[in-house]
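The following block was generated as part of the benchmark described in Methods. Ligand: phosphoenolpyruvate.
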Amino acid sequence: MNSARKTYIIANWKMNFTPGEASLYLHRLQSRVERIPRNIQLVLAPSLISLQSLSLQINRRQFKLAAQNFNQNDFGAYTGEVSVMQLRGFVDYAICGHSERRYKFHETDKEIGEKVAAAIRNGLTPILCIGETADERKNHETATAIYAQLAGGLHDVSEEDISKVIIAYEPVWAISSNKGARPANPGDIEEATALIRKHISRIYGKTTAEEISILYGGSVNKDTAGGFLDVKGVDGLLIGNASLVADSFCAIIDIAKGKTNER
Ligand code: PEP
């Protein structure tokens, strides 16, 4: 964690909770999470179907909402899709290029770049997820994969807009729902965040590279969150499974609060 940058704790609920369950869960979280310091931002990414109702219920001084996915076009003949333009009244953040979108729904770097641009165009903060697969790591292609995903995802992001982007490093082999998943070790994460800042520095300059927020995601739980937050270059966590249970998610929030008090 870096004292100049905010700490983000982001919950990706994926395709879990009915709208009623999501509302009850938010109620539980809001009554347990007390005052949040200004240098921590908590973000919840529920299913699309729950966004509108949660946006009315949410205490924005505690939590902000994020879309898990959206269509990159603002409107038009895209049956079944929802645009970020339609969502922007409900959310402040938009997850782009989660590995489940890349590998289960075959989203390309080009499409992900268009989504990042659409989020910025509509006044939202894109959270661009990148990370190598197990095979890429085994074949020493981690840097190549990270650079390609950054190049595609940031293709249409201008120098003026890059400060609006958050990057989440999520190695695919560390995501808990993937077979054989294991959390990344601090060395791997530090190396990856350094690669990300190097790429950003080449394109947007050194100051931007120092200022951009980079999160880690992959099998984070309450026992490991503190260690990940201590990794140099990491500004927060993107959490899947452990964000679905109030005890574990609130414990992670408390750890982040403790760390920001230490600063
Ligand atoms: C994710 O899917 O973004 C994620 C980080 O999941 P988990 O925490 O369950 O590994």
